[in-house]
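Chain A, query sequence.
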Amino acid sequence: MNGVKVVMDYPGNRALIGFTRRIGLWLGAAVVLGGAAAVMLVLQLAVLARIVSDLAFHNHAISDERAGLTLLLALLAGRALLQWAADMVANEGSLRLTAAIRGELLRHLFNVGPVGLTGQATGHMVTVMGDGIAALEPYFAQYVPRAAMMVVLPLLVLGMVAHLDAWSFVILACTGPLIPVFMALVGYRAQAIMDRQWTQLLLLGSAFLDTLQGLTTLRLFGRARDAVAAVAGMADEYRATTMSVMKVAFLTSAVLEFFASLSIALVAVVFGARLLDGKADFQSAFMVLLLAPEYFMPLRAFSASYHARQNATAAMAGISQLFALPETATRHATRDSAAGAPLVAIRCEDVTAGYQADAPVLSHAGCTFRRNALTVITGESGVGKTTLIRLLLGLLQPMQGHVTAVDECGMPHARWQDRVGWVPQQPRLIHGTVAENLRLADPMADMDTLRAVAAQADALSFIEALPQGFDTPVGERGACLSGGQVQRLALARVLLRNPQVLILDEPTASLDLQSEQRVAAAIARAAVGRIGIVVAHRPAMIAQAAQVVRLRDGRLFSGPSTVECAA
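Chain A, predicted structure.
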């Protein structure tokens, strides 16, 4: 299984604060609306206390309190509307921010490129892009506004209580700060558990994906049951850790409820004794008893969303790790790949490249790839063929030297990789029809265009022989097609972009002799009018070459046909 490295000692909190600033206006509006709702709550309780006092001790009839009841209902409706608006504003800001983070991370990963992502577990990245970024949404939508309201409403209540009764103010002022202190003590333990839970989720996602991808191999070796048992064991560990998180959450709630109940009980006892002695009036006592639970209500809401902060902090580890990956790929433009003056040559000049600064794979290599001259790159495994292809595709930057392309006027192009068409050794086909797979290169292509590129790739005859022609499903990863048919279909798809540079990696490696010859001939025809570059070892493909580039010990040797000469 690919390793998953999660660093928990990272500036996750600083990153969360930085993201929070990006939606400061949204969160500020949510806090202002929530504060206005809190003011209406206090006014609502004051009106209610006066109505009850008038009805109980001043012999008022219910009809005498119509104005007060109307005001009470208006305050109730206004408070509900303001709180709804505060929640909607916070949710909207959170959704906008998480969508922006997901887009930025995806663009960053594209700029990192396949070379930079080689050491990253696919399951890890998928989990971070999905569950990881989703875990940030409750943090911005709930935790941050509730943390602000945990200050606003208690201070408002304390100010009102201080005006009504000094003893109640002292009790609430002393017991209130104890709750955040004990919640912080419990939170340290909860954060460690959340970190472990997030790590287990990443490992579980990687293990599950690896098991699915290697299911055929596991069954051939009779280890499928063992792999399933291993994934099940990891899932059980994740379940146990999740239950530990729930236990800590219940403990946090129990601590909060204990201190809140104790404080309210003290206020009630003190006021009850003073009411019996005639040292306090009912309206003030009733008002304070109504305010006391509301004093702790923001703390309850904050406690309920506290796990959102812990989950977001743990998830931020994986997000920060992916954002920290260095960009190694060339940023491609989003314009037509065929636009601009035609390219006539690609030049590698004194190129040194590799993946470690002290161990270059290519050393001072030089070669020229010309239009209308199919070039075959060959050499033993490990000599740098893949590295050279990655340089040409813009997936890897040279440590030294330059890879440039020039047009008919001899002018270099900065974005010539936009005009490259690439066919890997194992092309990927989606689960759809032949036409849908071809239209991945150009969604607006009509049927005549599809037929033209299919004919150019020598794929039209077998496509028309299929039961439904271009509407025939190809199956998962082209399971309904042969290897040669997949290669020709992939070639047709690339040709639909009309690239000026055509690069293929071992297109005939796994084909039989007849399919190899047909694919080789199709590639040779497709290379006419283009810069054609093919990595190959098979004789049929080499026979089509106008130039053969041989790699040996990180150096390039090129010449017409199979004649070698030092670069």
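The chain has 17 helices and nine strands. The two ends are 41 Å apart (CA to CA).
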